[in-house]
Amino acid sequence: VCTCKREQLGEKPLCFLHRSKKKLRRKHKRSLLETLCTGSYLDVEKTSLWFYQLVRCSWRHVPESDSWHLVFQPCSRSCQFQLSKGRKSVAVEMLFGVRQGDSDIFVASQPTEAQKGGSSSLVSSQPAEANFIASTAWPETYAVAEAKFFRHIARQVPCESLHLKCLQVFTCVLRGTGFSSSVWKTVVMHVLTTVPLSRWRRREFARRLWDIMAYLRRCLQSKRLEHFVLGNERLPAEISLPLAVR
Fold first, then answer.
1. H/E run at residue 71
2. How far apart are CA 230 and CA 54, in angstroms?
3. I want to staple 45 with a disulfide (CB 3.0 to 4.6 A). Which of 20, 52, 135, 216 is the partner?
4. Could you name the CATH architecture of 142-245?
5. Are 198 and 159 in contact (CB under 8 A)?
């Protein structure tokens, strides 16, 4: 994106489109485009390596480095490391995402569970095969929008944890039956927008389980499970979506 206009407003960012490579090299030891991109595309693996190097160099200056031991785990699409102190141990994974405008939709460094199954929506310069995602491919994720939806529901329902208990029942009890947790999550979210929220009380737990199974049955009969975010007019207004997604 051209940043020349920002210079007129007092800012002086480097414009990668209209500055010569010689000027860019004089300003930087190595261009950010070379560090983070492959061609014209943001590269997940290069971004992960760049961030990993920053964390490794910065760790020495953190006070906790005297008492905690940091070990990095090999990973090409995220930054994973283990922190240990005596018997205490913490595993950390940093994922990377690019926000689409001011919306709650992102493209992320890691594919979601549903996308690993082969139904991914990718922003990429090259085709991704079934078991391989190109380093320039950033799968689209709706996780932030879904999290905001669940927070919205928790403020509205009489028993704020009932819908989560329903989801937990199906994902745990029916594990291994061919339905992924993302399928159950999608089904439960749809039922939350079709059954009045006033009916999600503890005494109606069994009835809500039946509603979820009935919705899944209709999906199986029609061989179709609608995406929860794409084109869903029932979403709360507080969830910000690009116009094309709405």
1. strand 69-73
2. 36
3. 135
4. Orthogonal Bundle (1.10)
5. no
Q: Which amino acid is at 88?
A: K
Rounded CA-CA distance 231/223 in Å is 19
Distance, CA of 8 to CA of 152 (rounded, Å): 42
- Does the pLDDT of residue 160 top 60, yes or no? yes
Q: Is 141 helix (H, G, I), strand (E, B) or coil?
A: strand
For the record, the structure tokens of 201 come out as 């009380």
Spans of all domains in the chain: 36-113+125-138, 142-245
Answering whether pTM is above 0.70, one says: yes
pLDDT in tens, 116-158: 654 444 454 444 444 568 899 999 999 999 999 999 999 999 8
| Contact between residue 55 and residue 83 where contact means Cβ atoms under 8 Å apart | no
Q: Rounded CA gap, 71 and 81, in Å?
A: 6
pLDDT tens digits along 10-24: 666 677 666 666 665
8 A C-beta contact, residue 136 and residue 43:
yes
Residue 96 near residue 51 (C-beta atoms within 8 A): yes
The DSSP secondary-structure symbol of 158 reads S
Q: Are strands 138-141 and 69-73 parallel, antiparallel or unpaired?
A: unpaired
pLDDT tens profile 179-215: 888 899 999 999 999 999 999 999 999 999 999 999 9
- Token pair 């090299």 is found at 25
Q: Tokens standing for 61?
A: 């200056």
